[in-house]
Amino acid sequence: MYETILFKIEEGIATISINRPEVGNAFGDKTYDEIRLALEECSGNDEVKTVVIRGEGRFFSAGGDVKSFKEMLDAGTPVTEDLVKMAGAMGRAPKLCQKPVVAMINGAAAGAGAALAMAADFRVMSESSSIVTAFINMAFPGDTGLIYYLQQALGTPRLMEYLAFSKPIKGAEAKELGLTTLLVADEDLESATYDFAKKLTRLPLKAFARQKAIVNEFFYKDLEAFNNREAQFMHVSAIEPDHAEAVNAFLEKRRPDFNK
Hints:
Blueprint: E1 5-10, E2 13-18, H1 29-44, E3 50-55, H2 66-74, H3 81-96, E4 101-105, E5 108-110, H4 112-119, E6 122-126, E7 130-132, H5 146-154, H6 156-165, E8 169-170, H7 171-177, E9 182-184, H8 189-201, H9 205-219, H10 223-238, H11 241-252
Parallel strand pairs: 2-3, 3-4, 4-6, 5-7, 6-9
Antiparallel strand pairs: 1-2, 7-8
Helix pairs in contact: 1-3, 2-11, 3-4, 3-10, 4-5, 5-6
């Protein structure tokens, strides 16, 4: 059914695994839709009590696929508003899922990957895990609601520092900042995540779903409008020279030269 993710249900726990390890689990167009659809499936499936999102291989997700950015630029069709809105729908999907959603952050969660992790109800990180905003490296403002989620968690002054310099937030710092629910040793990440997910399966899930609903209604009510504004700004940025310079510099493994 799915091409870019793996999906299974065992003992009440649904696992959604981003399955593009050859590109660091970077998102393609299908990945955005498939993650959203899998979360919608979990929401309506009584067999599912809890959801775990993870990445196959070394990374949770590297975010956007830089090679696809290059292909779009070469084709004269840089990132569109519709594509960013599709990504935004994925970024909202964990919030809209009626089941508890846990992000198991193996390796780096960057850009849209960081947004997906932050959209989960709970995060489990290891000492070597990291959350990276990353968008500025592509001369992009950001999408998938990451700015929205981090602003609520960090406050605006600290947020601006992480956005501007894309400093990785490692596991210990993430715990100090309140970004992760659990911080565990690298070798314990998977077992700790599923032990935690198992605890969540024993919650009164209808009550938990209503908790999520009221939080969404009063604290995330303008998230979709935020995603729409992101789409406008992302497209404008995609057609400017700085984005092409960022993509080419990344692929050529050199420092970009912006603001020409």
